[in-house]
Design a protein that fits this description.
- The N and C termini lie far apart (52 Å).
- The chain has 108 residues and is an all-alpha fold.
- The chain has helices spanning 2-26, 30-56, 60-89, 102-106.
- Helix 1 (2-26) runs antiparallel to helix 2 (30-56) and helix 2 (30-56) runs antiparallel to helix 3.
């Protein structure tokens, strides 16, 4: 039963990773692509790792997958924010149909 639940988590993670990769190809600008890739890593890859943890249990592989989940949850949003801020400061323009620019509004 636990193996089936682990395979469901892995399947859901693969779906999110696939949709995130489509977002990297299809979305119009750097900022939207960063959002897609962050969601892809946070939801997709962490789900795959959690499924691997459920299948392997508290073995060395399971413990490493939990540590990787923790690392990804802590670093992925922070790195995406840093990349978006650096892109904005270096003058990368938003998509012409973008409605709001919070960095510009804040004067940063």
């Amino acid at each position: 039963m636990i193996n089936t639940i682990g395979l469901v988590f892995i399947s859901v993670g693969l779906f999110f990773d696939f949709v995130g990769c489509l977002g990297l190809v299809r979305l119009p600008d750097v900022y939207n692509r960063l959002q897609a890739s962050t969601k892809c890593v946070t939801l997709g890859t962490c789900s795959i790792l959690f499924g691997a943890f459920l299948i392997h249990g508290m073995t060395a592989a399971g413990t490493k997958s939990l540590l990787c989940i923790l690392f990804l949850i802590l670093t992925s949003p922070v790195s995406a924010h840093a990349l978006a801020r650096a892109a904005h400061k270096s003058g990368v323009k938003l998509w012409e149909k973008s409605v709001v620019d919070r960095y510009e509004e804040d004067g940063n």
